[in-house]
Design brief:
alpha+beta; two-stranded antiparallel sheet; 2 strands
């Protein structure tokens, strides 16, 4: 799946990244990261080591809403990259590719 490329809408991306920046300042986000647990791997890495991840990536049309943003560790965020949840599942099921 690494051979698939997407061209993000730059205006949408800029707008959503600004919204994400504001979302990180909210009490809602502070409560989400307070447990220090990564949404994807379940490891407790501490609140200071969690990043905001868009479940549906901004570059793929995702928005910076409470329903699309989760706390995750840097390792999971880096490995997820611009994949959707379905692509992540397929990658686990078929590590050698489809």
């Amino acid at each position: 799946m690494s051979d698939i490329f997407f061209e993000a809408d730059k205006i949408h991306s800029r707008r959503e990244r600004e919204k994400a920046k504001q979302l990180r300042k909210t009490d809602w986000w502070k409560a989400k990261i307070s447990s220090g647990v990564c949404h994807y791997c379940g490891r407790n890495v501490g609140p200071e080591n969690l990043t905001l991840d868009h479940v549906i990536p901004v570059g793929r049309g995702g928005c910076s809403t409470k329903g699309n943003c989760v706390p995750c560790c840097k390792d999971c965020n880096n490995s997820k990259s611009a994949k959707t949840p379905a692509e992540m599942i397929l990658e686990k099921l078929f590590p050698e590719g489809i």
